[in-house]
Write a structure and sequence with these properties.
The protein is of the alpha+beta class. The chain has three helices and ten strands. The protein has two domains: 15-48 and 57-88; 95-230, Cupredoxins -  blue copper proteins (Immunoglobulin-like, Sandwich), CATH 2.60.40. The strands form two sheets. A five-stranded mixed sheet has the order 3-2-1-5-8, with no helix packed on it. The longest helix is centred in the N-terminal third of the chain and has 33 residues, at 15-47.
Length: 231
């Protein structure tokens, strides 16, 4: 999760987020080089009196400053399109989880398990344990297996919401009457936090998302326990 005075992105826990961070660094380096070149040329023009009259009508320099930006745009567009297609690639999932946005909480349904569903509300401040985070903790965490391809179906019951977990590199709108689909996976166990990223009303900032990734065997035990309790 984010830390105070953090300048960069959150640590990646999914392959998609690792690709996004690499593309961010790639694009940022190009921007830095272009900005440095422009700043150098501006300072050169302001500090020197040397001029070259033949540059007023030079075809070579015009070709350079036309072709070079096109090459730079291609260098940015190709990896961007690659990641875009990676995020839209859907393979056979191990598990399907449905998230439904409400004002102002989330409901989760495990489609592969019978009657395994619950609501996830923000944890009131006076119920927080030491070490838990205010405005980010929930009463029912969403438990998922790590190193598994998980299909998320996201919808809404009332208004527009947005289901987003930055460390996983996933964000999709929850729209009433429509199912949006995304794939997610975590390469390590742990707690990962997110929030509703669409202004959905007065309590928009009180819709946290907490995903708890655990090992396969522990997830099966957890799902079996909840099934027995619900009988």
């Amino acid at each position: 999760m984010a830390t105070p005075a953090q300048l960069g992105l959150q640590n990646a826990t999914s392959p998609i987020m690792e690709e996004l961070i690499a593309f961010h660094d790639h694009a940022l380096m190009i921007i830095f080089l272009i900005s440095s070149l422009v700043l150098y040329i501006m300072s050169l023009m302001l500090t020197t009196k040397l001029t070259h009259t033949s540059t007023m009508n030079a075809q070579e320099i015009e070709m350079i400053w036309t072709i070079l930006p096109a090459i730079i745009l291609i260098m940015i567009a190709l990896p961007s399109l690659r990641i875009l297609y990676m995020t839209d690639e859907f393979i056979k999932p191990y598990l399907t989880l449905k998230a439904i946005g409400h004002q102002w909480y989330w409901s989760y349904e495990y489609s592969d398990y019978e009657d395994l569903a619950f609501d996830s509300y923000i944890m009131p401040t006076y119920f927080l344990e030491p070490g838990e985070f205010r405005l980010l903790e929930v009463d029912n965490r969403t438990t998922l297996p790590m190193e598994a391809d998980i299909r998320m179906l996201v919808s809404s019951h009332d208004v527009l919401h947005s289901w987003a977990v930055p460390s996983l590199g996933v964000k999709t709108d929850a729209i009433p009457g429509r199912l949006n689909q995304i794939m997610l996976a975590s390469m390590r166990p742990g707690l990962f936090y997110g929030q509703c990223s669409e202004i959905c009303g007065s309590n928009h900032s009180f819709m946290p998302i907490v995903l708890e990734f655990i090992y396969f065997q522990d997830f099966e035990v957890w799902a079996s326990y909840l099934y027995i309790v619900s009988l």
